[in-house]
């Protein structure tokens, strides 16, 4: 079966993850992390994209990137991975692929959870138990938000909250799970956030507590106007697929 085509983001924003082949390390020492950041910085100057967040882990990388023109993402990532892998292989006298398969990308279409996604990216070292405090990890964009920006475009997020608020916000555990895959379709978190917006800030599970006519009207809207499948609505709301399938009758 061939690879599925990538989804392009209407906003130009992508959450990107790439990993070492067989989950092997792609960073062996500090200079390797520095080289990756320098390569990103050089490509930013050439291709004029934005970086809203990043986190470099030993065997994988998270990026939150905004392209300038639709489709730039493919060339950006090809050049980044080719440059770094070539440098790494020469340095360590190795050959063959460094990055597993291809990078994974998830379009980010909803601004409302951008800050949560950035917190999720920054908290990777805590979830991996590398550090206990987020400010102790060197290889993420968190220090750039708290001090001087080097490659991260911090202005947009810091226009919505000051540094102190940003710091307090990041001390709270991010419980959202921002899966990145190459599958066609919208992520569960996207669907959850879209439903929350439609029902004035309530959680999707609360739809099942509404009076039947109101509940059915929302479910019909989710199917017809938002284009969500019965399975997607069932996962988000907890309402059985039998009830969901009847709501347009």
Automatic annotation (TrEMBL):
<dbReference type="GO" id="GO:0006313">
    <property type="term" value="P:DNA transposition"/>
</dbReference>
<protein>
    <submittedName>
        <fullName>Transposase</fullName>
    </submittedName>
</protein>
<dbReference type="GO" id="GO:0004803">
    <property type="term" value="F:transposase activity"/>
</dbReference>
<dbReference type="Pfam" id="PF01797">
    <property type="entry name" value="Y1_Tnp"/>
</dbReference>
<feature type="domain" description="Transposase IS200-like">
    <location>
        <begin position="9"/>
        <end position="124"/>
    </location>
</feature>
<dbReference type="GO" id="GO:0003677">
    <property type="term" value="F:DNA binding"/>
</dbReference>
<dbReference type="InterPro" id="IPR002686">
    <property type="entry name" value="Transposase_17"/>
</dbReference>
<dbReference type="InterPro" id="IPR036515">
    <property type="entry name" value="Transposase_17_sf"/>
</dbReference>
């Amino acid at each position: 079966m061939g690879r599925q085509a990538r989804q392009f983001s209407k906003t130009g924003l992508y959450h990107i993850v790439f990993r070492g082949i067989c989950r092997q390390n792609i960073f062996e020492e500090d200079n390797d992390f520095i080289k990756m950041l320098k390569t990103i910085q050089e490509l930013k100057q050439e291709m004029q994209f934005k970086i809203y967040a990043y986190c470099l882990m030993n065997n994988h990388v998270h990026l939150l990137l905004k392209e300038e023109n639709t489709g730039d993402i493919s060339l950006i990532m090809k050049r980044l991975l080719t440059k770094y892998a070539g440098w790494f292989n020469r340095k360590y006298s190795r050959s063959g692929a460094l990055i597993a398969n291809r990078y994974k990308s998830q379009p980010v279409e909803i601004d409302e959870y951008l800050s949560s996604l950035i917190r999720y990216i920054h908290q990777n070292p805590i979830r991996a138990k590398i550090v206990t405090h987020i400010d102790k990890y060197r290889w993420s964009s968190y220090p750039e938000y708290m001090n001087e920006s080097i490659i991260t475009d911090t202005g947009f997020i810091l226009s919505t909250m000051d540094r102190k608020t940003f710091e307090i916000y990041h001390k709270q555990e991010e419980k959202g799970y921002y899966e990145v895959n190459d599958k066609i379709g919208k992520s569960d978190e996207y669907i959850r956030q879209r439903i929350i917006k439609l029902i004035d800030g309530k959680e999707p599970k609360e739809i099942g507590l509404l009076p039947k006519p109101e509940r059915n009207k929302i479910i019909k809207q989710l199917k017809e106007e938002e284009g969500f499948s019965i399975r997607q609505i069932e996962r988000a709301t907890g309402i059985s697929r039998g009830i969901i399938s009847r709501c347009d009758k």
